[in-house]
Specification:
Layout: H1 2-26, H2 33-40, H3 53-61, E1 134-137, E2 140-143, E3 148-152, H4 153-156, E4 166-172, E5 178-179, E6 182-190, E7 193-195, E8 198-200, E9 209-213, E10 221-224, H5 237-246, E11 255-261, H6 311-321, E12 335-339, H7 346-357, E13 364-368, E14 381-387, E15 404-407, H8 417-435, E16 446-449, H9 457-469, E17 473-477, E18 514-518, H10 524-529, H11 532-544, E19 546-547, E20 552-553, E21 565-569, E22 577-581, H12 593-597, E23 601-606, H13 609-617, E24 636-649, E25 653-659, H14 664-667, E26 672-676, H15 683-686
Parallel strand pairs: 12-16, 12-17, 13-16, 17-18, 22-26
Antiparallel strand pairs: 1-2, 3-4, 4-11, 5-10, 6-9, 6-11, 7-8, 7-10, 13-14, 14-15, 19-20, 21-25, 23-24, 23-26, 24-25
Helix pairs in contact: 1-2, 6-7, 8-9
Biased composition (Polar residues): 20-36, 58-67, 111-121
Organism: Tremella mesenterica (Jelly fungus)
Biased composition (Low complexity): 1-19, 37-50
């Protein structure tokens, strides 16, 4: 019995030691410094074994942030949102009483394998950002008042930036990288800053660049640019004195920039508006936090990955920019076609190519051929956009008004391949005749973003797009040969040369086509976290809550409470044509038009006057709707609208209540409506998120229009239950 009592006493002693150590580990957060002081006086005996390495790191980083309160700003707005990627250690067994050690010599950014990069689940992977402490963030080691500092409006007023209430002044040395998640602005003061394929340079106007880095996509990496001819610093004598007062170690080769938070309303996506992405922005504020970002001493709630570009991407971007410049010939204007399967970073590389070309051109054209994941509008549209500023964020953060577009109303060209190719052909004609050489002194290059369907009919459509566009650069981002799961045979290669397509030269003129094959980017875990349906939902709802006039968002009110436009639909009204397209649209009778339009998403189109006049002369405009009628080929899609209510009036007149982000100047051009039932408003867009409460309870779902949640009792409708505890072994 004495041996048993001894074992019980040893087990009790070990559990007390483990729990005491856990409290001390939690005290590494500044908000728990008092808890550590309390536990240090605990009379429970502590083991006499030497403290492991993690304990030494704990003592170094547990400095109380008292230095923050003595005259300094209490919450730096930028560095707190930094996400530190950490690589998992293979082969280590789990132990709740012995968390993983923090190896100071490990560099997470130096590894080539970043497919499973994610913030560590243990708080040991993050160091407290105190006044006298340092923080390992990738290759950038932040040391307050040495290479970063917090500045307020009075200090920023000395360099003409007094309108900024608070900012973080960051200094990066050559070779350092900084990864920051959230919504923030960047102003470069000295040197050059590389981000998203472009280099941001200082300017006398202190140009500010908005950056959106939610966890739905890979987090961009900030790094100093390697410039052959460094730009002249935009700092005057007062600004140099300002930097000298903030930093103790400043060298000419350093890159210095300001980071400060911005909220154009997109942070309103958090909460119950779209529950599947409720945590892409940080919902709470803390002592070291930036709006929408993650404190460096806490674990982000979602898996995040940095945007790490392979070396082949950098070579391809340099090849694209090598043929442009002030003395470039008209026939050397790039037409870049980006293709590849899903999930390889095709759209990301297209954005980086756009930013790279904007370094040499005032405008760049963008041809969107991906119906499922459009860049500047919700899916279902083939369009041509004119972009005059670099973009730093996912598609839902930068919607734009198209230069010319056509609405197909589906997320895949499988059901309408002929209409798909015809729409792309018309967009290319518009580019060649109206955009590319409209201004001889400032020609406009073109970026073509293709779909991720590259097999079977998708390969045929892709080859047709290459034939029609005549690109100067074809960028093929393909997965490695060994990426296919074992046990499955590889699909046979599709030979596009044998397809029954008219043989046209791929490159129009004497120019050679530059074909580059690139490796995929390493951010697959982010794409696995959010599905394509999630991203389409975000894009669609963010579009309807957007204000194109000042490029802001307002999610405070649901769509069902936004005051709508009331428009008359009749043969003599501002809207006089309705076109129903898609599968099954031919069977909709004119008397059922009200039911077909109510609660639907439609496209507002502009019809040329000559087409309208010709239709009236032929007697085709006797009714607003004719079964089986297709939209005019030269119609222009202005944008999308949600028809919230339809009122039938005498003599074939309808009153439509529409919710749309388009401005009145654009709305007055609308003359027709195009409707395809393949794209509907998501369920979350029909709900009042102010009354739903917590998501599991789904309060108010009975009030959702066009949604029936009643249960029907029948045999076989219950969920199948499997009792695995009653099964035999090895079954």
């Amino acid at each position: 019995m004495s041996a048993l009592a001894a074992r019980r006493a040893a087990a009790a002693h070990q559990s007390q030691s483990s729990s005491n150590g856990a409290v001390q580990d939690a005290s590494r957060s500044p908000s728990l410094s008092k808890a550590r002081t309390t536990t240090s006086s605990n009379p429970t005996p502590i083991s006499s074994e030497p403290a492991p390495k993690r304990a030494r790191l704990q003592r170094q980083t547990s400095t109380s942030p008292s230095g923050v309160s003595d005259g300094a700003v209490s919450h730096p707005p930028a560095l707190s949102s930094v996400v530190q990627p950490t690589l998992p250690r293979p082969g280590r067994r789990f132990s709740p009483s012995a968390p993983a050690e923090l190896d100071e010599v490990d560099d997470p950014m130096s590894s080539d394998d970043t497919s499973n990069v994610s913030p560590s689940a243990s708080p040991k992977a993050h160091k407290t950002v105190g006044a006298d402490s340092t923080l390992d963030i990738g290759t950038f080691i932040a040391d307050r008042n040495q290479n970063w500092s917090v500045v307020i409006g009075k200090e920023l007023a000395s360099i003409g930036l007094g309108h900024i209430p608070e900012a973080a002044l960051v200094c990066l040395s050559p070779g350092e990288t900084l990864i920051c998640a959230g919504a923030y602005n960047v102003i470069v003061l000295q040197g050059g800053l590389d981000i998203y394929g472009t280099t941001l340079l200082p300017s006398p106007q202190h140009t500010s660049y908005p950056i959106f880095a939610p966890t739905t996509h890979a987090i961009p990496t900030l790094r100093p640019a390697s410039l052959d001819n460094p730009p002249v610093s935009a700092l005057g004598a007062a600004e140099r004195n300002f930097l000298g007062s903030c930093f103790l170690r400043i060298r000419p080769e350093m890159t210095i920039f300001l980071m400060y938070e911005h909220d154009k309303g997109l942070l309103g996506l958090r909460g119950q508006i779209i529950p599947s992405i409720a945590r892409i922005w940080r919902p709470e504020w803390s002592e070291y936090s930036m709006g929408g970002g993650y404190p460096a001493n806490e674990t982000p709630p979602q898996v995040t990955n940095p945007l790490l570009c392979p070396s082949s991407w950098t070579d391809a971007l340099n090849a694209i920019g090598s043929q442009v410049g002030a003395g470039a010939k008209k026939e050397n204007i790039p037409i870049v076609l980006v293709k590849g399967p899903k999930g390889v970073g095709k759209s990301t590389f297209a954005r980086m190519s756009l930013n790279r070309l904007l370094q040499h051109h005032s405008k760049v054209a963008w041809l969107e051929c991906d119906l499922g994941q459009s860049e500047f509008c919700p899916g279902g549209t083939i369009g041509l956009w004119m972009i005059d500023a670099p973009i730093f964020g996912p598609p839902f953060s930068h919607p734009r008004q198209p230069y010319r577009a056509e609405y197909l109303g589906t997320y895949t060209p499988l059901t309408c391949p002929e209409e798909y190719i015809a729409a792309i052909g018309r967009m290319l004609e518009v580019y060649q005749s109206q955009v590319r050489n409209h201004d001889i002194t400032h020609p406009v290059p073109l970026i073509i973003n293709t779909q991720g369907w590259i097999k079977g009919l998708g390969a045929e459509l892709l080859y047709t797009v290459e034939t029609l566009s005549g690109p100067s650069h074809i960028i093929d981002i393909s997965k490695p040969a060994g990426s296919q799961p074992p046990g499955w045979t590889a699909s046979p290669e599709w030979h596009t040369t044998n397809l029954p397509i008219p043989d046209q030269p791929v490159a129009k003129g004497k120019n050679k086509v530059v074909r580059l094959t690139l490796e995929p980017a390493s951010f697959t875990s982010v794409s696995n976290k959010f599905t394509s349906a999630d991203l389409r939902t975000v894009s669609l709802l963010a579009y309807f809550h957007h204000n194109f006039k000042d490029s802001t968002w307002d999610f405070s009110d649901p769509l069902l409470t936004i005051p709508p436009y009331e428009v008359c639909l009749s043969i003599f009204g501002p809207l006089f044509s309705v076109y129903l397209i898609g599968e099954g649209s031919d069977g909709i009778l004119p008397e059922d038009l009200t039911l077909a339009l109510n609660g639907s998403i439609v496209a507002l189109i502009d019809i040329p006057d000559q087409i309208n006049d010709a239709g009236r002369e032929n007697g085709e405009e006797e009714s607003v709707y004719v079964q089986g009628r297709s939209p005019p080929e030269k119609s222009d899609c202005l944008g999308l609208a949600l028809i919230r209510a339809v009122e039938q009036r005498p003599k074939g007149v309808m009153k439509l209540q529409m919710v749309t982000p388009l401005s009145p100047d654009v709305l007055k051009r609308a003359k027709g409506i195009v409707r395809n039932g393949a794209i509907e408003l998501p369920t979350w867009g029909l709900m009042d998120h102010r009354k739903t409460g917590r998501l599991p309870r789904m309060k108010g779902r009975e009030e959702i229009p066009f949604l029936d949640t009643s249960e029907v009792e029948a045999v076989g409708l219950d969920k199948r239950k499997i009792r695995r505890n009653l099964q035999r072994r090895n079954v």
